[in-house]
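User: Predict the full complex structure for these chains.
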Amino acid sequence: MTIDEIKIGGLGASRSRVEDNRFVRGKGNYIDDISLPGMLHMEILRSPLAHARIKSIDASAAWAIPGVRLVLTGELMASRNLAWMPTLSYDTQAVLATDKVRFQGQEVACVVADDPYIAKDACEAIIVDYEPLAAIVNPTQAMADGAPIIRDDKENQHDNVIFDWEIGDKDGTDRAFADADVVSELELHYPRSHPSPIETCGSIADFDRSTSKLTLYMTSQAPHIIRAAVAMVAELPEHMIRVVSPDLGGGFGNKVPIYPGYVVSILASILLERPVKWIEDKTGNLISTGFGRDIYLRGQLALRKDGKILGVRMHADSDHGAFFSDAQPSKFKIGLLHSAFACYDIPAAHLTARGVYTNKAPGGVAYRCSFRVTEAMFFQERMVQAAADDLGIDQAEIRRLNFVRDDDFPHRTPFGFLTDSGQYRKCLDIGLEAIGYEDFLKEKQEAKKNGRLLGIGISTMTEPLGAGNSREYDILGIKMFDSAELRVHMTGKAILRTGAKSQGQGHETTWAQIVAHELGIPAEDIVVEEGDTDTAPFGMGTYASRSTPVAGAAVSMVSRKIRAKARKIAAHLLEVSEEDIDWELGRFFVRSSPDTGVTIQECAMAAYSNVPDGMEPGLENNAYYDPPNLTWPFGCYITTVEVDPETGVWDVLKVVAVDDCGVRINPMIVEGQIMGGLAEAYAISSMQMITFDEQGNCVGSNYMDYLLPTAWETPGFELHEVVTPCPHHPIGAKGVGECATVGGPAAFVNAVLDALKDTGVRNIDMPLLPDRVYEALTEHHDVSGAPPLRTGS
Amino acid sequence: MYPPRFKYEAPDTVEQAIELLRQGQGEAKVLAGGQSLVPMMKLRFAAPEMLIDINNIPGLAYHGADPDGTYRIGALCRHVDLEKAEDLAEQQPTMAAAAPLIADPIVRTRGTLVGSVCHADPQGDWASVMSSLGGSIVAQGPNGRRSILVADFVAGPFQNVLRPDELAIEAVVPAPVGTRAGSYLKLERRVGDYATVGVAVSLEFSGNEVARAGIGLTSVGASTINAGEAAQELVGDDLNAGAIERAADLAAQASRPRTDHRGSEAYKRHIVATFVTRILSNLRLTIQEVA
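Assistant: Here is the predicted structure of the two-chain assembly.
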């Protein structure tokens, strides 16, 4: 009897998410739900100024408040050699400020008290005497002659430049430009945005003096990295550290870095020998934790008259805030920005990048993207659009002309990546068909006669997901592989643990589906656990869409190891040699007598009751998976809009998304990921930004100013799929969690600019708020930069 | 949320509430819907010594018209009550247009019109709507009640003219002298965002002639703006294109916006004029259709 894979919740089953059973009942177990006996509460006092020297801190009034147990300042931290901590990008970051504050919201002191009300009151009672300094809020100011040096704590730091980095072939690119018929140029700003998980960051540090063990409950997308980092920074032995990441209310990259609050709570627990809980408030999260983007990009395309792209030049000035704490592979200073133009066949390219310090919060995390890929793809698609406009070529045609062809894989990109699969033209064609491209162009012309402004925007992307192979990808020297451990119990039920950490992605559902696919054990018979470093095998965590490409592959591989052992047991049970049996889903059978067989469940029972001589009993194993390459999903996003010429307000008419993420494990979850990504793309393009005034005050420090779109304004999405299996992934899957966030924004922006095409406007920087669109429309100039510092040109 | 320590009282009568306000000597705040006050306490922008929760006081949740057409909204009437009131579009078209645009559905379920006017946030929608209608707030103190025009009630940003021992009991829109017409338009970056610009226009027609007009502007000054001159331009005339254009210009001139992350001063003025024109042009079309 052949098992129906969909019925057992295997590959391709749109199975309901098992974790939702507890989430929709309010039974999730988040960090703030955890309460330990004798637990104290910690609150952070943050700097009101962006740049200032600390002259003195007087905490005597805070100490005097009944219920206050400990006040921690930079001075106390320094006495323990913990005033500074290393970042994930080989820089240092202040835990609590000692000499200066370098951004508004920086951690200055912490109070531990019997309850959070007392802790908050006591923070307000701390008197800090600041000597204000001039604030630097963008790269231009940072690089200006005579600019104040933000990182005067570092020896040999004589300016505000963090790095100058380049990649590609400069000479070859110069030659391509010399041969060009036309050179198109574009300059833009990808504004600072924030991953903004609904649950903020937090921790409970519980140091037990009697066992010398530290248990750290915390909101981390990568608990094993945290254990390693705490072992190195706090000089606690690694086996005496247990990091537990419970249910997470979203992460989006924000919960990868190590924040001062975690570190201070650990020290407070060690000093007080009691559990110390720190729960960040929403403003604290928005103004001090890992942001995304904030990068100024300019570039040129060398073009042949017919639209063929001959070469690319790109330059990035990236604003990293006060500490270089990007969470990204060590080898690449500006993430994977050089993945730009990977889906186009371009002979030569050269990228330069400069990173600078500013008086803004540090971070530069991969907000729902694989390390600066969002910026890369946005720039790519805006640039291609500008080239089409400059040449007077149809925007779909220029893409079709330059795409890497289906039979050209594997394809080496001009920056050195190896893409391995895709059907780019097919995706574009499906998208154009779905949006009704030709009809819309006619409708647009008709509407113009009545003074209505319609626009259509195309964006495509291929994203390097699943960092990654250990030759090229590491964080702090730790190779970016991942792992899975599978234990099959005697009744054929199983527990699977991985080193990844779900934050809403649905691992508990999809990992079980992979096991079901490999072993034929129904998905509902497999429980999935993640996030506890004492039980889960080592892994690099979940971000950059790497879980399915890496941890998911490890789940396949460990299942295959189990199957290999089960095969030996099956041979023993069937009394034939291993070579004489075959496998079908869930069952081994004698090749010559297909009706004679044993199920995987029967093999599991035998593993504990009837193993062949010389075989270890039990049915469990683990697998560490080091992927041979990244996975390369493709997406095509097409949007139509109407702009109100009187107000600059634009409405989305239709959004079409065509995603090729290879084999889909759970199509429903994949669709949810794409819709969520498109909602974020719409938000970033239309309303979202964290900006700063001249004094470095953060504008966007709460949800009244930093806008998350709701169901009211988020447009509907029409989804289509193409499946090109990944050639090296065990089940042909590619990453997908971030594709639409990466590729989506340019579709919205290109559409609005298409509606404004007659004005000659080439760029409006995001977010495309109505006032900026109206200004471009009526004054016929680009609108660039971050308001309120933005400039018309 | 961890606000500073405060005393909480929940009186059962208006008289008790007023006595508590007297005891509070200006350091007490009234809690009705709490949709502005509670977030401000959470951020520690507001730190009242005492909260007087009036939600236990019966008989304040009403809204409706007296026989003469005077419209009354009690201190505990929620935004959602107005949003869902089926007769509101006929009786109070400007209010009916504004009600579904107040904040977001969650806020509308708890927040109150009277509380919103008392809060006197220049970005609040109801104050400009009530101002355009010539509405008043009825305040009750130890010595009885008094009525204050909304245009006079709002003293500045987050300031009203209530005395420390007065409780705002209701908002009142006077009986119309003609047939009511009006609307509210709001430009916002997202549902639930404060207005970038909001415009309330309230008219009363006697035949084709405008007998009474009011224009209130949201978010374009340090407090709610009553564009009286612009409204006056419409009175005594049919709603012709010239009058509409003059009213739109005057309303834009009456606005005092500031450049911020929602838009430039010039843009906001332009939106004021555009919205006044849109509302009046639509009303003109409606009237022409009726005629």
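The first helix of chain A runs from residue 20 to 23.
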